[in-house]
Specification:
Elements lengths: L10 E4 L6 H31 L6 H27 L6 E3 H34 L4 H32 L8 E2 L6 H7 L5 H32 L5 H29 L10 H21 L2 H15 L1
Parallel strand pairs: 1-3
Antiparallel strand pairs: 1-2
Helix pairs in contact: 1-2, 1-8, 1-9, 2-3, 2-8, 3-4, 3-6, 3-7, 4-6, 6-7, 7-8
Length: 306
């Protein structure tokens, strides 16, 4: 398939956040710090779980994949965004724009499904604790395979729509990255129906899965009545961390996609939260509330120091 841009559109101009040099320097420092912290924290989680024999439960295996996805996802847009804050003219090539769209949708779609897998893992751990290890280990690889394939299919739908369009211009994107809705506005003809397809592909999926999460946690909380006080505390703590991540990730997704694109342009600050801030939340929330991971990190650091 030929992915070259029609009508010789070889690049797009990104307006970014502001033209004020002082604000650009502040944003540069803030976003660079967030990016470095996100990468280091997620990589630390991956190495800690991989090298710690005490963290062998399936939940921690899923957590390493979440950390890998977060580190990869923030690497798609944040380095370019930070670099662009050093320049007044910010452009991205057609190929670079398509690459961003592919990776955003692939990694984002995969993470949504992995979060669903983690919800299933927590449901089994609380409701069927005696069979937890057997059930989760049997379906571990299959569930992760579904997540990766789901991310590929989600990205494929978006890209097939983009490469089938003819663009009339302009080529100025009022954002810090390439986003599907901005490209849709550059297309010739009426793209309202395509906008509906995108809402169904992304927005409805996020909304549906979010409600499934909500229902599953109601079931989990109702099943805690038969557990002891210590078991209830551990279950609520673990599930609470996961549900917090779900809320932070799904709310921007639902807000961005579940409204008419023509009348409500993409909010760049919501895009910042989704692509820059959300990947930082995984290590903060999971590690900050998980005593096993914190203990394993301390032991790992002691072994490296000594």
């Amino acid at each position: 398939m030929d992915l070259t841009s029609p009508y010789n559109v070889t690049e797009f101009v990104l307006l970014g956040f502001t033209q004020n040099p002082y604000l650009q320097k502040i944003l540069l420092i803030v976003f660079l710090f967030i990016f470095l912290f996100t990468m280091l924290a997620n990589l630390l989680i991956i190495f800690t779980i991989s090298l710690s024999p005490t963290l062998s439960a399936p939940m921690y295996f899923f957590l390493t994949h979440l950390s890998f996805l977060d580190a990869s996802f923030t690497s798609v847009t944040t380095p370019k965004m930070v670099t662009d804050l050093l320049h007044q003219k910010r452009t991205i090539s057609w190929d670079g724009c398509l690459t961003q769209l592919v990776m955003e949708n692939f990694l984002g779609g995969s993470e949504v499904i992995v979060l669903t897998v983690v919800a299933c893992d927590r449901h089994v751990a609380v409701c069927k604790p005696l069979h937890y290890t057997t059930i989760t280990r049997q379906g571990l690889c299959q569930l992760l395979m579904v997540a990766w394939i789901g991310g590929i299919l989600h990205a494929a739908v978006q890209i097939l729509i983009i490469v089938s369009l003819t663009f009339c211009g302009p080529n100025v994107i009022d954002n810090f990255m390439c986003d599907f809705f901005s490209l849709l506005k550059f297309a010739c003809g009426d793209t309202y129906r395509l906008g509906i397809v995108v809402a169904a592909n992304t927005g409805v999926m996020c909304l549906l899965i979010f409600f499934l999460f909500f229902i599953s946690y109601i079931v989990i909380l109702s099943s805690l009545k038969s557990h002891g006080s210590e078991g209830q505390y551990r279950a609520v703590s673990t599930c609470g961390s996961h549900f917090t991540i779900v809320v932070y990730i799904f709310d921007p997704c639902i807000f961005t996609h579940m409204h008419p694109v023509a009348t409500h342009p993409v909010n760049k600050w919501v895009a910042v939260f989704f692509s820059v801030s959300s990947p930082m939340l995984n290590p903060i929330i999971y590690t900050g509330r998980n005593t096993e991971v914190k203990s394993a990190m301390r032991n790992l650091l002691k072994r490296r120091v000594t």
